[in-house]
Amino acid sequence: MADGEGRSLEAAAHCAAVACFPRLTDHLVRLAVLADRQAGASWPQIGRALGVSGDAARARFTRRGTFEGRPGPGDAPPR
Q: What is the pLDDT of residue 65?
């Protein structure tokens, strides 16, 4: 199929196919962090695996006020 300028509309199909990857990847990482926390991984361990400090990982993947101890309701990845 061609647009008004004679170019194939399918040419953008590649971009459209991968446009959702960043959101899906972020969701997958959040689920992996939650699973690792539930399995007993520490924030420094998770941070090392992600290439950041433990504090940075904890700040990114927890909700405010739930930084210590075992995973709690605040450790659930936001939707």
A: 47
Q: What percent of the chain has pLDDT over 70?
A: 68
CA 59 to chain centre: 13
Long-range residue pairs from 29-37, CB within 8 A, at least 24 positions apart, any chain: 30/61, 30/77, 30/78, 31/77, 33/57, 33/61, 33/77, 34/61, 34/71, 34/75, 34/76, 34/77, 37/71, 37/75
CA dist., res. 35 & res. 54, Å (int): 16
Tokens read off for 68:
């210590």
Please give the structure tokens belonging to residue 10.
Answer: 């399918």
